[in-house]
Amino acid sequence: MSKEITNTAARLQVDVPVAEERLDEALIALSNLMTSVVTARRDTAGLPIAKGHATIQRLAKAQLSLVDVSGDVLRVHGELVGIGRETAGYDLHQECPQQSAVLVPLRAAS
Questions:
Q1: What single-letter DSSP state applies at residue 44?
Q2: Residue 105 φ then ψ, to 5°
Q3: Cα-based distances in Å from 107 to 17, 19, 103, 104
Q4: How far apart are CA 84 and CA 77, in angstroms?
Q5: Which DSSP string corresponds to 80-103?
Q6: pLDDT tens, position by position, for the chain (110 residues)?
Q7: CA 63 to centroid of chain Cα atoms
Q8: What is the CB neighbour count within 10 angstroms for residue 84?
Q9: Domain-by-domain residue ranges, the chain?
């Protein structure tokens, strides 16, 4: 396997899980926001229950969009695994021999 393919595989081994994790974090953040918005609507005395309904619908739509995006990224992950196997006999779920030498984990770099 060429060094370029090995480096690319190592980079993808970091980037793909990071993207998946950040999508989960975004979904959690939107879920927390949804909880706060609905709680605020419930706890606000004197406002009609219909107030804020459009906002809640938009948040729900955003959550569903993130779920769709997450599914697309999971499919991309699977496609990349297939490409890696076809191209270099490499599996993104395996440890890349150069991964630790080439890349610094993002958490360590920040």
A1: S
A2: -55, 140
A3: 13, 14, 12, 8
A4: 10
A5: HHHHHHHHHS--TTSPPTTHHHH-
A6: 578 888 888 899 999 999 999 999 999 999 999 999 999 998 988 888 888 899 999 999 999 999 999 999 999 999 998 888 887 665 555 555 544 444 445 455 44
A7: 13
A8: 20
A9: 3-104
Q: In this structure, what are the phi and psi dihedrals at residue 71, rounded to the nearest 5 degrees? A: -65, -40
What is d(CA 89, CA 5) in angstroms, rounded to the nearest whole number? 11
Check if the beta carbon of residue 48 is closer than 8 Å to that of residue 88: no
In angstroms, the CA 71 to CA 69 distance is 5
pTM of the model: 0.71
* 60 three-class SS: helix
